[in-house]
Amino acid sequence: MNEWFEKIANGIMILRKIGKGVSNLPDYEAYVNHLKTHHPEITPPSEKEFFKEYLEKKYGASAQRCC
Fold it and tell me: How many angstroms separate the first and last alpha carbons of the chain?
């Protein structure tokens, strides 16, 4: 039974990654891994803060727009 739940959880994680890839959202886990590997002195933001900053850069008042 436990193995069954693990398979479901793994499937959900895969679907989540596919959804983020299709929607062009950045990969938070990859970002955190990058910080831990290359910038250990920097404390990673929470996932909520990470996406808030991403959306602000993309759609906020200072976002770059064509024309």
Answer: 57
